Amino acid sequence: MKIEKLFSMQNELNTRIVKEHNLENVSLSDKRRLAFLVELGELANETRCFKYWSKRPASEKEVILEEYVDGLHFVLSIGLELGFTEIELPIEVELTEKMDKIELNHLFLSLYQWGAKSLLKQEFNLFLNEFLGLGVKLGFSFQEIEAAYLNKNAVNHERQDSGY
User: Fold this and answer.
1) In whole angstroms, what is the distance from residue 122 CA to residue 131 CA?
2) Are 77 and 160 in contact (CB under 8 A)?
3) Is pLDDT of 38 > 90?
4) DSSP-assigned letter for residue 85
5) How far is it, in rounded angstroms, from Cα 26 to Cα 123?
6) Alpha-carbon gap, residue 107 to 22, rounded angstroms
7) How many CB atoms are closer than 10 A to CB 44?
8) Helix 61-81 / helix 29-47 crossing angle, nearest 10 deg
9) Across the chain, where does the E strand assignment appear?
10) pLDDT, tens digit, 9 for 90 and up, residues 84-95
């Protein structure tokens, strides 16, 4: 995964949205965190991991991946706000081993805690790594995550083109 490329693409999208919606002098920090939490909830809903009362299976893998990258857009936006444009990613295989030991519901709850607070710069790397760990836990490779992000970023630009 070329995280610097994703940060750059997210910065381009954010800059466009801020300009086109006249938000230059508006703090978007709380809105971005809330948007992340909403997207995280939509993702949890598609996985159905917490629905102990239901026998219905999780949504299709493609639906879950799309919800996941919706959240990634806001994780990157939070990172950009903190001044990140490049970061050292964990090794995917090591992250997979770590995530195998964490229960999915616990991971969602932990990410809710991260997303609900104003992060300090030194905390962002932990937050990003945990979110990437969620993607791995859900069965996605870094390559799949990156490809899905690129596709959804293009969709987000198309939405802006059409007055979304």
Assistant:
1) 16
2) no
3) yes
4) S
5) 24
6) 36
7) 21
8) 160
9) none
10) 877 878 787 887
pLDDT given for residue 157 in this prediction: 87
CA distance 100 to 80: 29
d(CA 22, CA 98): 43
Q: At 27, which amino acid appears?
A: S
**19 is written with which tokens?**
């300009």
DSSP structural state of residue 143: H
Q: Pick the closest to residue 83 from 125, 145, 27 (CA basis).
A: 125
pTM recorded for the entire structure: 0.91
Q: How far is CA 23 from the centre of its chain?
A: 22
pLDDT tens-digit series, residues 7-35: 999 999 999 999 988 899 999 999 999 99
